[in-house]
Amino acid sequence: MTMTIRSSVVLASVAFAAISATGARAATETDTFDISLEITAACSVTAGSASDIDLGTVASTATDLSGSSTITVNCSNTVPYFVGLAPSNNATDGAGELDPASGPDTVPYQLRSASGSSGAIWGNTATTTAVGNGVSGTGNGADQTLTVYVTVDDANYAPAVYSDTVTVTVNY
Asked: Band of the pLDDT at 25, cuts 50, 70, 90?
Protein backbone atom coordinates (compact mmCIF):
# COMPACT_ATOMS: atom_id res chain seq x y z
CA MET A 1 0.00 0.00 0.00
CA THR A 2 2.91 2.31 0.70
CA MET A 3 4.10 1.65 -2.78
CA THR A 4 0.69 2.50 -4.20
CA ILE A 5 0.55 5.71 -2.22
CA ARG A 6 4.09 6.53 -3.21
CA SER A 7 3.28 5.77 -6.86
CA SER A 8 0.19 7.92 -6.64
CA VAL A 9 2.21 10.79 -5.13
CA VAL A 10 4.86 10.43 -7.83
CA LEU A 11 2.24 10.33 -10.54
CA ALA A 12 0.47 13.34 -9.07
CA SER A 13 3.77 15.21 -8.85
CA VAL A 14 4.62 14.37 -12.47
CA ALA A 15 1.15 15.44 -13.62
CA PHE A 16 1.39 18.68 -11.65
CA ALA A 17 4.84 19.35 -13.09
CA ALA A 18 3.56 18.70 -16.61
CA ILE A 19 0.61 21.03 -16.07
CA SER A 20 2.80 23.65 -14.44
CA ALA A 21 5.35 23.45 -17.23
CA THR A 22 2.63 23.81 -19.84
CA GLY A 23 1.06 26.67 -17.88
CA ALA A 24 4.39 28.39 -17.49
CA ARG A 25 4.89 28.40 -21.25
CA ALA A 26 1.47 29.95 -21.99
CA ALA A 27 1.47 33.75 -21.86
CA THR A 28 -0.43 36.74 -23.23
CA GLU A 29 1.20 39.71 -24.86
CA THR A 30 -0.67 42.90 -25.83
CA ASP A 31 0.12 45.99 -27.84
CA THR A 32 -1.92 48.74 -29.41
CA PHE A 33 -2.36 50.40 -32.77
CA ASP A 34 -4.05 53.65 -33.85
CA ILE A 35 -6.77 54.35 -36.36
CA SER A 36 -6.78 57.82 -37.82
CA LEU A 37 -8.86 59.77 -40.28
CA GLU A 38 -8.49 63.31 -41.56
CA ILE A 39 -11.66 64.93 -42.85
CA THR A 40 -11.21 68.04 -44.95
CA ALA A 41 -13.79 70.74 -45.48
CA ALA A 42 -15.76 70.54 -48.71
CA CYS A 43 -18.48 72.61 -50.31
CA SER A 44 -20.48 72.42 -53.51
CA VAL A 45 -22.87 74.84 -55.15
CA THR A 46 -25.72 74.15 -57.55
CA ALA A 47 -27.19 76.90 -59.70
CA GLY A 48 -27.58 76.09 -63.40
CA SER A 49 -30.67 76.65 -65.51
CA ALA A 50 -32.98 75.76 -62.62
CA SER A 51 -31.73 78.95 -60.95
CA ASP A 52 -32.31 81.22 -63.94
CA ILE A 53 -34.34 84.35 -63.20
CA ASP A 54 -36.77 85.30 -65.96
CA LEU A 55 -38.19 88.79 -65.52
CA GLY A 56 -40.72 88.06 -68.24
CA THR A 57 -41.88 90.14 -71.19
CA VAL A 58 -42.62 93.74 -70.22
CA ALA A 59 -43.46 97.05 -71.89
CA SER A 60 -40.73 99.69 -72.08
CA THR A 61 -42.80 101.75 -69.62
CA ALA A 62 -42.48 99.11 -66.87
CA THR A 63 -40.74 100.10 -63.63
CA ASP A 64 -39.62 98.40 -60.43
CA LEU A 65 -39.12 94.96 -61.95
CA SER A 66 -38.01 92.16 -59.67
CA GLY A 67 -37.54 88.43 -59.63
CA SER A 68 -35.95 85.68 -57.58
CA SER A 69 -34.62 82.19 -57.70
CA THR A 70 -32.58 79.86 -55.52
CA ILE A 71 -29.11 78.38 -55.42
CA THR A 72 -28.10 75.41 -53.30
CA VAL A 73 -24.97 75.19 -51.17
CA ASN A 74 -23.81 72.01 -49.47
CA CYS A 75 -20.84 72.26 -47.08
CA SER A 76 -19.34 69.88 -44.54
CA ASN A 77 -20.86 69.97 -41.07
CA THR A 78 -19.80 73.08 -39.05
CA VAL A 79 -17.86 74.63 -41.97
CA PRO A 80 -18.53 78.38 -42.30
CA TYR A 81 -19.01 79.58 -45.87
CA PHE A 82 -19.43 82.91 -47.67
CA VAL A 83 -21.21 83.17 -51.04
CA GLY A 84 -20.47 85.88 -53.58
CA LEU A 85 -22.32 86.71 -56.81
CA ALA A 86 -20.53 88.28 -59.78
CA PRO A 87 -22.32 89.57 -62.88
CA SER A 88 -20.46 89.09 -66.17
CA ASN A 89 -19.17 92.70 -65.96
CA ASN A 90 -17.30 91.60 -62.80
CA ALA A 91 -18.83 94.37 -60.68
CA THR A 92 -18.07 93.43 -57.08
CA ASP A 93 -21.17 95.29 -55.86
CA GLY A 94 -23.58 92.98 -57.70
CA ALA A 95 -24.60 95.70 -60.19
CA GLY A 96 -24.85 93.96 -63.54
CA GLU A 97 -25.94 94.80 -67.04
CA LEU A 98 -28.35 92.83 -69.17
CA ASP A 99 -27.00 92.80 -72.73
CA PRO A 100 -29.19 92.53 -75.81
CA ALA A 101 -28.68 89.89 -78.48
CA SER A 102 -28.13 92.91 -80.77
CA GLY A 103 -28.39 96.63 -80.17
CA PRO A 104 -26.62 99.36 -78.25
CA ASP A 105 -28.52 99.43 -74.94
CA THR A 106 -27.75 97.58 -71.74
CA VAL A 107 -30.24 97.32 -68.90
CA PRO A 108 -28.75 97.78 -65.42
CA TYR A 109 -29.81 95.41 -62.65
CA GLN A 110 -28.92 94.81 -59.01
CA LEU A 111 -28.42 91.45 -57.27
CA ARG A 112 -29.84 91.33 -53.76
CA SER A 113 -30.10 88.95 -50.80
CA ALA A 114 -33.50 90.35 -49.75
CA SER A 115 -36.52 91.26 -51.84
CA GLY A 116 -37.36 94.72 -53.11
CA SER A 117 -35.31 97.66 -54.29
CA SER A 118 -34.16 98.35 -50.73
CA GLY A 119 -33.05 94.75 -50.12
CA ALA A 120 -29.41 94.15 -49.14
CA ILE A 121 -27.00 94.19 -52.09
CA TRP A 122 -25.41 90.84 -52.87
CA GLY A 123 -22.00 91.25 -54.46
CA ASN A 124 -18.74 89.40 -54.72
CA THR A 125 -16.40 90.73 -52.01
CA ALA A 126 -16.76 87.61 -49.84
CA THR A 127 -13.50 85.83 -48.96
CA THR A 128 -12.66 82.60 -47.16
CA THR A 129 -12.70 84.48 -43.84
CA ALA A 130 -15.21 87.32 -44.28
CA VAL A 131 -18.70 87.70 -45.72
CA GLY A 132 -18.04 91.09 -47.36
CA ASN A 133 -21.19 91.97 -49.31
CA GLY A 134 -22.03 88.31 -49.83
CA VAL A 135 -24.16 85.91 -47.83
CA SER A 136 -22.85 83.67 -45.06
CA GLY A 137 -23.87 80.31 -43.68
CA THR A 138 -22.61 77.30 -41.79
CA GLY A 139 -22.59 73.88 -43.38
CA ASN A 140 -24.58 71.01 -41.94
CA GLY A 141 -23.69 68.34 -44.49
CA ALA A 142 -27.01 68.81 -46.31
CA ASP A 143 -28.28 71.08 -49.07
CA GLN A 144 -29.03 74.63 -47.94
CA THR A 145 -31.11 76.86 -50.18
CA LEU A 146 -30.29 80.54 -50.63
CA THR A 147 -32.66 82.92 -52.41
CA VAL A 148 -31.23 85.39 -54.93
CA TYR A 149 -33.24 88.50 -55.83
CA VAL A 150 -32.76 90.84 -58.77
CA THR A 151 -34.20 94.31 -59.29
CA VAL A 152 -34.40 96.46 -62.41
CA ASP A 153 -35.44 100.10 -61.91
CA ASP A 154 -37.12 100.49 -65.30
CA ALA A 155 -37.41 98.99 -68.78
CA ASN A 156 -37.08 102.22 -70.79
CA TYR A 157 -34.68 100.71 -73.30
CA ALA A 158 -34.78 99.57 -76.93
CA PRO A 159 -37.02 96.54 -77.50
CA ALA A 160 -34.87 93.39 -77.46
CA VAL A 161 -34.19 90.24 -75.46
CA TYR A 162 -31.62 91.02 -72.76
CA SER A 163 -29.61 88.59 -70.65
CA ASP A 164 -26.54 88.19 -68.48
CA THR A 165 -24.68 85.39 -66.71
CA VAL A 166 -23.92 85.49 -62.99
CA THR A 167 -21.11 83.47 -61.40
CA VAL A 168 -21.70 82.02 -57.93
CA THR A 169 -18.61 81.60 -55.74
CA VAL A 170 -18.60 79.73 -52.42
CA ASN A 171 -15.63 80.62 -50.21
CA TYR A 172 -14.88 78.33 -47.25
From this structure: confident
- CATH number, residue 139: 2.60.40.1090
For the four alpha carbons of 85, 90, 93 and 95, in that order, the dihedral sign comes to negative
CA atoms within 13 Å, Cβ hemisphere of 11: 6
Q: CA-CA distance, 10 to 15, in Å (whole number)?
A: 9
pLDDT at 48: 85
Chain mean position to CA 101:
35
pTM for this entry: 0.80
Query: What is the Cα–Cα distance from 123 to 51, expressed in whole angstroms?
Result: 17
Q: What's the DSSP call for residue 16? A: H
Any domain includes 34: no
- In the chain, the number of structural domains is 1
Q: Which domain holds residue 103?
A: 63-171
How are strands ordered across the β-sheet holding 63-75?
Answer: 43-46, 63-75, 144-154, 107-112, 95-100, 162-163
| Residue 139 DSSP one-character state | -
